[in-house]
Amino acid sequence: QVQLVESGGGLVQAGDSLRLSCAASGRTFRSRAMAWFRQAPGKEREFVADISWSGAITNYSDSVKGRFTISRDNAKNTVYLQMNGLKPEDTAVYYCAQDNLPLRNAVPRIDAVGSWGQGTQVTVSS
Q1: Within 10 Å of residue 78's Cβ, how many Cβ atoms?
Q2: 8 Å CB contact between 114 and 100
Q3: pLDDT, tens digit, for every residue of 61-106?
Q4: How far is the C-alpha of 43 from the C-alpha of 71, rounded, in Å?
Q5: What is the pLDDT of residue 26?
Q6: If pLDDT is split at 50, 70 and 90, which confidence band does 19 have?
Q7: Is beta strand 46-51 parallel, antiparallel or unpaired with respect to 18-24?
């Protein structure tokens, strides 16, 4: 079973930056697309960004495009989310997720997630 451990969350002011990290155990990381989702209080979990197993292809939600960057280091079994220009509406628990099938270029749907991290809180004050 894959374990995903997020870190890097915190309390920041609007306009600040944060970098989230997600360290994965096991041998599947290098062959699986990875994604970040987030969930704000009272809202459903939503897609933020994903990255193909090779790292060559990335996708972003419209709400974060141009501000957030997803990347991965397969040698370190780690995926990152660089968040710049943070806004109060970015406040949420951010979850790392791994695709349930190998060698895909994206995590196609939330129900395609095979493993979730425990989440890290990001709070952006105005």
Answers
A1: 18
A2: yes
A3: 999 999 999 999 999 999 999 999 999 999 999 999 999 999 999 9
A4: 26
A5: 86
A6: very high
A7: unpaired
Rounded to an integer, what distance in angstroms lies between the CA atom of residue 114 and that of residue 107?
10
Predicted pLDDT of residue 115: 96
Burial of 86 by CB count in 10 Å (0-12 exposed, 13-18 middle, 19+ buried)? buried
What secondary structure, in 3-state letters, does the chain show?
CCCEEEECCEEEECCCCEEEEEEECCCCHHHCCEEEEEECCCCCCEEEEEECCCCCCEEECCCCCCCEEEEEECCCCEEEEEECCCCHHHCEEEEEEEECCCCCCCCCCHHHEEEECCCEEEEEEC
**Residue carrying the six token digits 């501000």:** 67
pLDDT over 90, % of the chain: 96
At residue 30, φ and ψ (nearest 5 deg) are: -65, -20
Identity (one letter) of the amino acid at 5? V
